[in-house]
Fold this protein.
Amino acid sequence: MSSPYSLLTTKDLSKEKILHLFSRASLFKSEFKKSNQFLQKNFESLNKTLAFVFFENSTRTRMSFQMAAYRLGLKVISMDSITNSSITKGESQLDTILNIDAMKPDLFVIRCGDSFNLKEIAPQLSVPTINAGSGATAHPTQALLDCFTLYETRRPMSQFRVLIVGDVRYSRVASSNFNLLQQMGAEVGVCGPESLMPDQEKFPHVKVFKKLDEGLDWANVCMILRIQLERHDAGSLKLPSLSSYHEIFGVTPERLKAFDSDGIIMHPGPINHGVELSTETLKDPRCVVLNQVENGVYTRAALMEDIILSSNNGGNLG
Ligand code: CP
């Protein structure tokens, strides 16, 4: 059994660990397809309770963690938003977490903004933490589910050329995917407004495409991102409007005519229709957006199972 670990960034995962998680996620998926439940593991007898704390809004991440926990037989206590918490009375986010920690949950799942220093705070907690998205910095479970969605095609990861399109600079999905995809052997390129491109020195092995058509010509995976207007204002686009953005960088059926016929179109959600893509793009047979969401349940189940089993009191469920 491995030692307990937190998942704060994709750098916390070895390739061996990633492959183990993918193998468990595949098993959960095939079991669920056959029997509408996970047969392999059931934590009910261990009476484990997880604390989900979401300081920022979420639909997919929060609900797929919950779905995965319930299917594993885990219990969940949840702080779904700041507005129904004592933060409205002036309590700090740090005090909030320390108080929940005092209730002795078995695992934390935390989403937070850049002002909450997860890297510094997680080691102060008595149990492991999973980062469910931290500011513009990291979203490791999104990268895991994205990478698993490519991995389950059974094509070698080294054959994937992934073009990340849009607001790369402010995207935690992009930064986590740079690390994970490259670690697994895929090539990564980016395309978007110059002001939203990442610092080249931080990501030296990433190809930069100024024109979307050139990027789509190179890639066989197109990962489209939302513009993170909650993290910067529209002025950062240096374009007159969101419709000009759509004209230059929006992924449309017209643009996708030249894209690899076996290519894969991804988006982590939520989507702003008519901005980063047109609604018709979602109907393209190469589009796997809802498969990504489904795979989020299996990969998060695999991760929670692994972390709980690796912690001291996890027990061995065989
Ligand atoms: N992809 C993602 O993190 O979506 P939510 O913000 O809805 O969780």
